[in-house]
Every structure is written in structure tokens, then in C-alpha cells.
Specification:
Blueprint: H1 2-6, H2 12-17, H3 20-37, H4 51-100, H5 104-127, H6 131-135, H7 141-144
Length: about 140
């Protein structure tokens, strides 16, 4: 149970840990805290870093990290839900075609067209381009990569 709860692979936290913004926030927080503890900042009546200020910065960093991770996870859940709905509708359509069309060749043709349309849809979402543009000699996948 502990290994499952500590697993990061395949989670939103893993992608958050790969962001430069996350590690730069951690780095600057540790750097400023260490510099303050070592008294590298000059004593000035105008600027004084107290423990309360560092606690505030740390709390803000934690809040922003949690907020960002939650936002990423919410977008992932919305995308996952939409994808599952499309696949569920595809399954419903196939069941309906099997029930309504008695001829095997016509049934297969209907199902092939819908599966092809779903594949084109996922391809357009993933690569952000129209399939027709690619078929007409537009930018290819190898050029986009």
C-alpha cells in the first residue's frame, strides 16, 4: 500500500516535477532561506527577512504548487472523461449497427467508417492539424516532429 501511494510514474505530480518553474521556485526558496540563515544579506533597516516572511514565502510556494498540480489534474480528468465518452459512444454505435443492419458487408463498412473517423479525430487532437491538409501534401508528421 505504501509503494502504491508513493508511486509517481503516470501521475500528474511526475509531470509537475519535470517543470522548470517548479524546481526554480524550490531552488530560490532554499537559496534565500540558506542565505538568510548564513547572514549573507546585509543588515538594513529597510529590508529585514524575518522567519515570518520566509514562512509566508514557503506557504505561498506550497499553495502555488498545489494549485498548479490541481489545475493540471483537473484538465487531465476532463480530457480522460471526454475520451471515455467518445469510446463509449463508439461502442454503442457498433452495438446498434450489429442490431440494425443484417448484411455483414454493410455492417463492417459502417463500423470501419466510424472507427476511422474516431482515429482521425484522435490524430487531429494529438498533432493539432487537419488530416486533409496532410493528405493534400501539407506538413507531414516527420516534419512536425
Amino acid at each position: 500500500l505504501v509503494l502504491v501511494s508513493l508511486r509517481l510514474a503516470g501521475t500528474v505530480a511526475a509531470s509537475c516535477f519535470m517543470k522548470v518553474e517548479f524546481w526554480s521556485m524550490i531552488f530560490f526558496n532554499v537559496l534565500f532561506t540558506w542565505c538568510d540563515r548564513q547572514h549573507f544579506f546585509p543588515e538594513s533597516p529597510l529590508i529585514e527577512l524575518t522567519d515570518d516572511m520566509l514562512t509566508t514565502i514557503t506557504g505561498l510556494m506550497v499553495f502555488l504548487t498545489v494549485f498548479y498540480t490541481n489545475d493540471c489534474f483537473a484538465r487531465y480528468c476532463a480530457l480522460y472523461s471526454g475520451t471515455r465518452q467518445v469510446l463509449g459512444m463508439l461502442s454503442d454505435y457498433v452495438s446498434e449497427v450489429v442490431l440494425r443492419i443484417p448484411e455483414q458487408p454493410k455492417r463492417r463498412a459502417c463500423i470501419k467508417y466510424v472507427v476511422a473517423a474516431a482515429s482521425v479525430f484522435y490524430h487531429e487532437v494529438r498533432f493539432g492539424m487537419e488530416i486533409e491538409e496532410e493528405w493534400r501534401g501539407g506538413p507531414s508528421l516527420s516534419a512536425a516532429a
